[in-house]
Amino acid sequence: MSEDAASETDVQTSEKLVELAKRRGYFFQSSGAYGGVGGFYTFGPQGAALKGNVEDAWRDRFAVAEGNMEIDAPTIMPEPVFEASGHLDTFDDMLVDCPECGESHRADHVVEDNTEYEDAESLPIPEVEEVIAEYELICPSCSAGLAGQAVETFNLMFATNIGPGDSDPGYMRPETAQGIFVEFPRLKEYARNQLPFGVTQIGRAYRNEISPRRSIIRTREFTQAELEYFIDPEEDDPDLESVADVDVTLYPAREQNTEGSSEIETTIGEAVEAGIIGDEWVAYFLGIAKPWYESVGVDMDRFRFRQHLSGERSHYAADCWDAEGKIDGNWIELAGFANRTDYDLSKHDEYSDDRFTIFRQYDEPKTVERATVDPDMSYLGPEFGGDAQTVVDELETLAERDRSAFDGETVEVELEGETHELPVEKTGFSVDEETIAGEHITPHVIEPSFGVDRLVYTVLHHAYREDEVAGEERTYLDLEPEVAPTFVGVFPLQSDEDLEAVADEIVADLRDAGLSVTYDDSGNIGRRYRRQDEVGTPFCVTVDYETIEEEETTVTVRERDTTDQKRLPVEDLDETLAEIRDGDLEFSDI
Ligand code: GAP
């Protein structure tokens, strides 16, 4: 199949999936009774269960299995947090307004969708304006020409006021990460002041996207699962050995910039050795993420890691790779893996009253020279009056930073823009030897940041199947048992008290065994199977007359994908199904 034909089929799949999602309770646009509002979606009963299972699987892998801590911080944070983080100044998208219909569009998307530019986000605004004019690009809503329209920046944060009045501005957090960074002074205590350590958070983030699109792929309120891993960049190394053999498809920046080049198939170990992934910590988390994505049902033939181009990186990132899944013939970003360096902690250290450093203990105490001052206040007092203490502070800073300033007979200090000369002998300047056990450092942060909603969409899209069963067309979702909203459906064959009583007992037993079960007694059995197939329930159990009439109590168990059926004893049904769910038994091996 050609690439175009493949993406056309994919688009059809998306249309059918969105219809199925609404009909079967996966997701649908919120506030529909009031006309709906762009960029907000509700997860229905199936969707909320699937999303919850994906989040649990993420928690198991990235928090529990890695020994990291999980927190749950507020979604509204005060303005100074975002002044410090840089979001207030730089968390912008490019906006272009249509002169005819007044609709606002993301200028970089208009360019990417209609020209050969793949990464218009990294272009400077004047260049985007030039491209719009050169290609005579038009408004996606009403087709009016956009040439000559100003492209402007638009800050994506939702603003609010904390309490009555407008004296305390706040913002809905645009990433869960800041909720972790601002608590670093307390979190380091829980980690007993030892690096490295990781803190995770799964929660809502808010971005006032200019043009939310493609159902839950780009929304204004979405869930992130983020890990902030704090390291000492000079001392800490990841356990690369444990992920060295993980196969990966990589699309490095160099290949993206070279015409005719495409993705490369390699392993994490080889990629690090060849310098393709420059940051070992980022490589480590890519190595963990790849098998995890596979375990929740992302199709590995439609999955890759792509390195950010230099203009594309966020204001805080030194290097960044995205996990991408292919949907509708396009690659979409599922997660970002960034080295945020000491950017965030340094900024919060600078802007707040707390300290965002950690004490690095040396293996052996070190002897160092320390320059200090002990000024003669009987001289400074009369000389500088109320400013004497400021002069002391200036001298202390100068001694620390530039001891050569004290080499001559006099030393210069700045006071409110004026330079004053003091005799060095009045400063009590001296250089002494001191033994120190360590130093305060600002940790660096490695951040795997997952979008949950996009992942749920990708899992559903990659699981969507159509086939024919007994001459009838069937749609089913080939969801992994670990994440399927319901693991087993239980049906009495007909409306009959005896069959229903046994079915009720089976439901109770299976629920006791920790399985998620749905009971369905409406419609013919074929329709009930189709209903469960469509929501991706891996197994169905039917209680029929053989169950209640034969000496050994058995039921029919049907597997979703193959539609194979087996008669299994009720006695150990809970154990058998639990083993299958946990991956310890295959249905075909029973
Ligand atoms: N703390 C880093 C950070 O927020 P990001 O790349 O902006 O990085 C991380 O976001 C992930 O969040 C993305 O990879 C994507 O999966 C998801 N995401 C971002 N914006 C989104 C939106 N408007 N709708 C749905 N998911 C979004």
Automatic annotation (TrEMBL):
<dbReference type="InterPro" id="IPR033731">
    <property type="entry name" value="GlyRS-like_core"/>
</dbReference>
<keyword id="KW-0436">Ligase</keyword>
<dbReference type="InterPro" id="IPR002314">
    <property type="entry name" value="aa-tRNA-synt_IIb"/>
</dbReference>
<feature type="domain" description="Aminoacyl-transfer RNA synthetases class-II family profile">
    <location>
        <begin position="15"/>
        <end position="492"/>
    </location>
</feature>
<protein>
    <recommendedName>
        <fullName>glycine--tRNA ligase</fullName>
        <ecNumber>6.1.1.14</ecNumber>
    </recommendedName>
</protein>
<dbReference type="Pfam" id="PF00587">
    <property type="entry name" value="tRNA-synt_2b"/>
</dbReference>
<dbReference type="Pfam" id="PF03129">
    <property type="entry name" value="HGTP_anticodon"/>
</dbReference>
<dbReference type="InterPro" id="IPR027031">
    <property type="entry name" value="Gly-tRNA_synthase/POLG2"/>
</dbReference>
<dbReference type="GO" id="GO:0005524">
    <property type="term" value="F:ATP binding"/>
</dbReference>
<dbReference type="InterPro" id="IPR002315">
    <property type="entry name" value="tRNA-synt_gly"/>
</dbReference>
<dbReference type="InterPro" id="IPR004154">
    <property type="entry name" value="Anticodon-bd"/>
</dbReference>
<dbReference type="GO" id="GO:0006426">
    <property type="term" value="P:glycyl-tRNA aminoacylation"/>
</dbReference>
<dbReference type="GO" id="GO:0005737">
    <property type="term" value="C:cytoplasm"/>
</dbReference>
<keyword id="KW-0547">Nucleotide-binding</keyword>
<dbReference type="InterPro" id="IPR006195">
    <property type="entry name" value="aa-tRNA-synth_II"/>
</dbReference>
<keyword id="KW-0067">ATP-binding</keyword>
<dbReference type="InterPro" id="IPR045864">
    <property type="entry name" value="aa-tRNA-synth_II/BPL/LPL"/>
</dbReference>
<keyword id="KW-0030">Aminoacyl-tRNA synthetase</keyword>
<dbReference type="InterPro" id="IPR036621">
    <property type="entry name" value="Anticodon-bd_dom_sf"/>
</dbReference>
<keyword id="KW-0648">Protein biosynthesis</keyword>
<dbReference type="GO" id="GO:0004820">
    <property type="term" value="F:glycine-tRNA ligase activity"/>
</dbReference>
<comment type="similarity">
    <text>Belongs to the class-II aminoacyl-tRNA synthetase family.</text>
</comment>
